[in-house]
Amino acid sequence: MVRGHARRHRDLLDKHWAQSQWTRPQAEQVLRRIDSILEQLPRARHQARQRILAGELVPSRDKILSLYDKDVRVIVRNKASAEVEFGNSLLLGENLQGLIIDWELFRESAPAYSALLPQSIGRMEAAYGRKVKAVGADRGFDSRTNQLGLEWEGIYNGVCPRSPFQMANRCRSWKFRWLQRRRSQTDGRIGIFKNGFLDQPVRWKGFAGRQLRVSWSVLVHNLWVLVRLVQSQAEQKESAAA
């Protein structure tokens, strides 16, 4: 019934678009959006019956998470406030001064954190033409492979180990403790970036639009950080002169 009602309105718009305030290209854009929803309705109805009425699990590959955006994915958070979220995973890497120097938005489900670390280091070294000297991250990025890889590359390993025994040993190093304290500030950086520079939710349809939005937001964020650094240096010089 709902589908037939929507189909009638769709056909009326197609036939009498000249009586609306839209141009023909604008009307065709609306028609394409309506057609997309009508095409998905049978699957959405079947999925609702299967999941809600029958109590059956729907395979991830068959799920319709959004009628309006096909690039939305399920993100498992396992947190009390939100066990799962819907969207695209975003990886951020910052330097000591708070500049975001690496980022990646994932169209599909993001790989395991431990797999992201060598990829991120490789991107940064290729982009900036400099070898990464030290890296700090939480325990999700730790693995035996990463430990061996960082040692082989001569990069100081400030990643929080999963093993409590390794953690106790690593905490004897002042450099490791310092990197972990610095790493703990990254959660604050993520909050600043998400809430201050990136719309929540990102109001761009399609993955390409969200990618572009993240790119511009990283640029604006880094300009903001640079201005604050220059201001801080100027204030320190004035204070020293006084």
Distance between the termini: 79 Å
Major β-sheet, in short?
2 strands, antiparallel
* Annotation field: number of helices: 8
Computed structural class: mainly alpha
**Order of strands across the widest beta sheet?**
1-2
- Amount of helix: 55-70%
β-strand percent reads: 5-15%
- Give the overall form: extended
| Model regions low in confidence, pLDDT < 50 over at least 5 residues | none
Number of strands: 6
Which whole number gives the mean pLDDT?
85
- Tell me the count of domains: 3
> Over the alpha carbons, how many angstroms does the gyration radius reach?
25 Å
> Order of helices and strands, N to C?
HHEEEEHEHEHHHH
Task: Based on the model shown, name its key terms.
3 domains; extended; two-stranded antiparallel sheet; 242 residues; mainly alpha; single chain
Give an account of the 3D structure.
- This protein has 242 residues and is mainly α.
- The chain folds into three domains: 61 residues, no CATH class; 96 residues, no CATH class; 74 residues, no CATH class.
- Helix content is 56%, strand content 11%.
- The strands form three sheets. A two-stranded antiparallel ribbon has the order 1-2. Strands 3-4 form a two-stranded antiparallel sheet.
- The model has no long low-confidence stretch (mean pLDDT 85).
Layout of secondary structure:
Elements: H1 2-16, H2 24-53, E1 73-76, E2 84-87, E3 90-94, E4 100-105, H3 113-128, E5 134-137, H4 144-153, E6 156-159, H5 164-170, H6 174-184, H7 186-197, H8 207-241
Parallel strand pairs: 5-6
Antiparallel strand pairs: 1-2, 3-4
Helix pairs in contact: 1-2
